[in-house]
From TrEMBL:
<keyword id="KW-0813">Transport</keyword>
<comment type="similarity">
    <text>Belongs to the bacterial solute-binding protein 5 family.</text>
</comment>
<dbReference type="InterPro" id="IPR030678">
    <property type="entry name" value="Peptide/Ni-bd"/>
</dbReference>
<dbReference type="GO" id="GO:0015833">
    <property type="term" value="P:peptide transport"/>
</dbReference>
<feature type="domain" description="Solute-binding protein family 5">
    <location>
        <begin position="94"/>
        <end position="456"/>
    </location>
</feature>
<dbReference type="InterPro" id="IPR000914">
    <property type="entry name" value="SBP_5_dom"/>
</dbReference>
<dbReference type="GO" id="GO:1904680">
    <property type="term" value="F:peptide transmembrane transporter activity"/>
</dbReference>
<keyword id="KW-0732">Signal</keyword>
<feature type="region of interest" description="Disordered">
    <location>
        <begin position="25"/>
        <end position="44"/>
    </location>
</feature>
<dbReference type="Pfam" id="PF00496">
    <property type="entry name" value="SBP_bac_5"/>
</dbReference>
<protein>
    <submittedName>
        <fullName>ABC transporter substrate-binding protein</fullName>
    </submittedName>
</protein>
<dbReference type="GO" id="GO:0043190">
    <property type="term" value="C:ATP-binding cassette (ABC) transporter complex"/>
</dbReference>
<dbReference type="GO" id="GO:0042597">
    <property type="term" value="C:periplasmic space"/>
</dbReference>
<feature type="signal peptide">
    <location>
        <begin position="1"/>
        <end position="23"/>
    </location>
</feature>
<feature type="compositionally biased region" description="Polar residues">
    <location>
        <begin position="28"/>
        <end position="38"/>
    </location>
</feature>
<dbReference type="InterPro" id="IPR039424">
    <property type="entry name" value="SBP_5"/>
</dbReference>
Amino acid sequence: MKLKPTIAVAAVAALFLAGCATGDQPGTDPTSGSSQTAGGKPGAALTVAKPDGAITTESHNPYLGDSSASKYAYRMLIFEPLAMVNPTGDLGTTPWLAESVEWNDDYTELTVVPRKDVKWSDGKDFTADDIVFSFDMILNGKLNDTGALNYTGATVDGDKITLKFANSKYTAQARVLHHPIVPKHIWENIADPNTDPLTGEGMVVGTGPYVLSNWSTESVTLTANPTYWGGDLVVPEMHYVSYGDNAALTTALVSGEADWAQAFLPQIEASFLAADEHNQFLVSPTAGAATLFMNLQTKPFNNKALREALAWTIDRQAYVDIAREGASEAVWSVTGLGDLLSSEILPEYADQKYSVDLDKAKKILTDAGYTWKDEKLIDPDGEAVSFSISVPAGWSDWNTEQALIAEELNKGLGIEVKVDQPDWGGWDAARQEGTFQAIIHWLEDTGNAYGMYTSTMDPKWIVDDKAQYNFGRFDDPAVTEALNTYANASSDEQRTEALAVIQKSFVENVPVIPLGAHPLLGEFNTRNYVGWPSEEDPYASGDPTQPAIAMILTKLKPAS
């Protein structure tokens, strides 16, 4: 059985980039006016919109999650990674700053060949030393290991660099490969890479397709890097603007003030797609899933029969069609895995899927000692079954799903479901402390089955009695051992053996109920450029906050 993801080890084919832009639609920025391509020909800028409100503090540090570069996501166009891991489509890997990347059998060593003839945006040569330095900052303690890479050092042999790690990175390949590579000649003089905002003159130096041109609290402008190793870029400027909320963002997209965003837009057909035939919306399924977590430690979910009955009652397609307005894919497999991970569904479960089957659900309950009185479900202790399901107020898609589940379970099984919509703080405290009854939550996405199962069955996420995942607090030593084996195995065969233990337990115990793939979303238009990712060609997601934005911009061509 082939386990995802497949890692490309050969050199990536040369990139063929369009070198000219349309000449009749100059792009304008709220502050800068018309833009030019690297070759001097006029072309349309692209404006990326965020719905996060004003971003008032300038910081271009790619390692800081709260820097303006990370919040806007323009760091992805300045600082490049060794390779790009596709979170959708084939889940494959494309070498980027490295000409090739290759893992050893147990994923504790990564051998890379640096791309030749690459220059930093200040004209200095990019070398193997820059790669080693970017990781060695973790080793020498200058840079916090926020990605838990557990990097132990590097060796250089000719044109090959081997990066070594203390434990297997099979389930964390993207975290390693997406580590931003920075110029040694700049960063070796930075006293504290964990705090430096990189706002000094000449500090924002990268190998990426764009360079920083202007920063203000209203917008950020990047211009095409004229010496980019990938060739000329058809989009001459990138603008980043953060709007107050999704409503303002939608207005900007519809009016053409903004071109590109990632957001869940309610009634997107009427609000965005119908406004212009060029407007596009791409839903890119990932290995993660929106999931109903149940508190396994208390009634009513400490009874497996009830969990199993719910799995045969909740309508995943309604979640996709109504709550997500089509922006998802239903997860029906009893293994909890969606279509992207179908290769990791063991043969014995390949054809086993849930459906909405109330007769089956009621038989499971009856066999377990449940009864009905006045059309209400009564548990074996003689108590009416009821529970609350909690999602923060304002999460419109999941708020809708709360109402759907409440209706489905009341009508189908006679269960009273109370809809709870607290603020974020109350919800966060309850999920960590285990004081909830049921919540809807996302999963850790590792690009393989491990993400689903560690998120839902692994005690490692519970520290000092507070949970970061596995909110139901499932605990089975055999499953824990199998999860550790899967993560650290040196072969697909070992992972498959571990998966047999994990998957069997998941199917038998129903610790959670996945609803639908948790996708990456992208709204964009084809007025000026074509070549965007699509359902037919999912080489990347359409989400401009992902590393592959650089890849997308090298593939765009002028619209005819």
